[in-house]
Amino acid sequence: MTQQKPASKRDPQGAAKSVFITGASSGLGRQMAIEFSRRGYCLALTARRLDVLKELQAELAASGGGPVFVAALDVTDELSVVQVLAQASAQLGSLDIVVANAGIGHHGAIGKLPFDRVRDTINTNVIGFMATVDAAMHQFKAQGHGHLVGISSVAAFRGMPAGGVYGASKAAVTTYLESLRAETHSSPIVVTTLSPGFIDTPINRGAKSRPFVIGVERGGKLLVDLIERQVQQATVPRWPWSVVARLMAVLPTSVIAKLR
Ligand SMILES: NC(=O)c1ccc[n+]([C@@H]2O[C@H](COP(=O)([O-])OP(=O)(O)OC[C@H]3O[C@@H](n4cnc5c(N)ncnc54)[C@H](OP(=O)(O)O)[C@@H]3O)[C@@H](O)[C@H]2O)c1
C-alpha cells in the first residue's frame, strides 16, 4: 500500500473539495457521504432511489453540512452517467473525487444462480463501474486533475464457491483500475482501489457467515481516511484482510471447496 501525505480538503482556489458518489442511497455510499459532509466536502450523491437521496440531503443540511447535489442515476445507463456527472460538475464547479461505489451482490453456484442475476451483477458492478470511470476520466482530463476511487472487494482475491460472478466482477474492478493507475502515472490524476471485507450493510445481511464484520460507521470512516490519504490500494479494514487476502490467493482448491 503506497501512502501519500494527507490531501488538502480545499482546492487550489481555496474552495471546499467536491466528491461525486454512486450508490449513495445505502450502506457504504451513504456512510461515506455522511463522513465527507462532516469533513467539510461538497457532495454530489447519486443512486436509483431519488427519494432516499433527498432524505439524506435533508439530514446532511440539518447537521450543517455544505452543498449537496442529488440526482437519480442508474449506472447501467451509460448516457445518464455522462449527463449526471456533467450536471454535478456544473453545479459544484468541478469534481475533485469520484467514488465508483454502486454495486450489487448476488451469490449462488454457477449453473444454479439464475442467469439474469449473473447478467445484472456484471451490468452493475462491471459495465456500470466502467461507465462511471470513463465519464470521470473525461471530466478529470477537462479540468486538469481528479481522484478516482473504485470500491472493489476482498472477493476479488480468490474465486469462492457460490461467489463466482460477484468475485469476477470485483476482480474486473481491481484489474481495470490497475491499468488506469499505470495510464495516469505521473499525471495529476490519482487512482485508489479500496477492497472492503465484511462491513455491515444490506448487501451482506442475508449471508450465513460474515467473518471479521465491522460496523458501517467505522467502515465509512476508514474508507474516507484512505481516500483522503490518496492510497493506491488497501483492504478495509487493513487488518486482518490484507493477510487473509494473501492467504486466500494461495490456499489449495481442496481447502477453498470447503468454505461454502
Ligand atoms: N458491505 C460490504 O461488506 C462490502 C464488501 C466489499 C465490497 N462492497 C462493495 O461496496 C459497494 C457498496 O455496497 P454496500 O455494502 O453499501 O451495499 P448496499 O447497502 O446494498 O448499497 C448498494 C448501493 O448501490 C446502489 N446501486 C445498486 N445498483 C445500482 C445501479 N444500477 N445504479 C446505481 N446505483 C445502484 C444502491 O442504490 P439504489 O438501489 O438506490 O440504486 C445502493 O445505494 C458495492 O460495490 C459492494 O460490492 C461492500
Ligands (ions, cofactors included): NADP nicotinamide-adenine-dinucleotide phosphate
What is the strand arrangement across the widest sheet? 3-2-1-4-5-6-7
Main sheet properties: 7 strands, parallel
Number of helices: 8
- Percent of residues in helices comes to 40-55%
Rg result: 18 Å
Count of folded domains? 1
Provide the β-strand percentage band: 5-15%
User: From the coordinates shown, what is the CATH architecture?
Assistant: 3-Layer(aba) Sandwich
Can you tell me the CATH superfamily? NAD(P)-binding Rossmann-like Domain
Look at the structure and give the CATH class. Answer: Alpha Beta
CATH topology: Rossmann fold
Q: Write the H/E string, N to C.
A: EHEHEHEHEHEHEHH
Poorly predicted ranges: 1-6
- For the record, give the distance between the C-alpha atoms at the N and C termini, rounded to a whole number: 30 Å
Count the E strands. 7
Classification by helices and strands: alpha/beta
Mean pLDDT, all residues: 95
**Which of globular, elongated, flat, extended, rod-shaped describes the shape?**
globular
Question: How does this structure look, described?
Answer:
Strands 3-2-1-4-5-6-7 form a seven-stranded parallel sheet, sandwiched between helices. Mean pLDDT is 95; it is low at 1-6. It has one domain: Rossmann fold, CATH 3.40.50. The chain has helices at residues 27-38, 50-62, 78-92, 115-143, 164-183, 216-228, 238-250, 253-256, and strands at 18-21, 42-47, 68-72, 97-100, 146-151, 189-196, 233-236. The longest helix is centred in the middle third of the chain and has 29 residues, at 115-143. It is built from eight helices and seven strands. Helix 3 runs parallel beside helix 4 (115-143) and helix 4 (115-143) runs parallel beside helix 5 (164-183). By secondary structure, the protein is an alpha/beta fold. It is globular and about 55 Å long. Residues 22-29, 47-49, 52, 73-76, 101-105, 124, 128, 151, 153, 196, 198-199, 201-204 line the site of NADP nicotinamide-adenine-dinucleotide phosphate (NAP). Residues 22-29, 47-49, 52, 73-76, 101-105, 124, 128, 151, 153, 196, 198-199, 201-204 line the site of NADP nicotinamide-adenine-dinucleotide phosphate.
